[in-house]
Automatic annotation (TrEMBL):
InterPro entries, sorted: Cyt_c_oxase-like_su1_sf (IPR036927), Cyt_C_Oxase_1 (IPR000883)
Superkingdom, taxonomy of origin: Bacteria
Protein name: Cbb3-type cytochrome c oxidase subunit I
Keywords: Membrane, Transmembrane, Transmembrane helix
A Pfam family matched in the record: COX1
TM regions (residue ranges): 5-24, 36-56, 68-88, 94-117
Length: 122
């Protein structure tokens, strides 16, 4: 699980950096919140979770670890897609996707925290 999280975090890193590069080239920084969230919740958070899971195999092997992985990686694209569409179109309909995705990611993070307190031991 740890290595899988690190690998998918590298994809988020590429997406976040690519979006940052695009914004710099076109001089349009309206998608800065998307860029920041992809880098923080995708690249940084998942890299750190991957390292923790790699160092603590019991946490990685748990059902909590699997649920964390899947919910985080389902919720984040939904949230980022909604945020991008909301920012570009200013259509409040897309805020629903932000809320749904953010809720799923928050549940994933809660499961990660429970997993750390339950399965990460000296």
């Amino acid at each position: 699980m740890g290595i899988r999280l690190i690998k998918i975090s590298a994809v988020y890193f590429l997406l976040g950096a690519g979006l940052g590069y695009y914004m710099a080239v076109v001089h349009d920084y309206s998608l800065t919140p998307v860029h920041a969230h992809i880098n923080l919740l995708g690249w940084t958070a998942l890299t750190l979770a991957g390292i923790i899971y790699h160092l603590f195999p019991a946490a990685a092997a748990s059902k909590l670890g699997k649920w964390h992985f899947w919910l985080h990686n389902i919720g984040l694209p939904i949230m980022m897609g909604g945020l991008a569409l909301f920012t570009i179109t200013e259509n409040p309909f897309f805020a629903v996707f932000i809320s749904i995705g953010a809720t799923v990611v928050l549940i994933a993070i809660l499961l990660f925290v429970i997993n750390v307190f339950t399965n990460v031991k000296e």
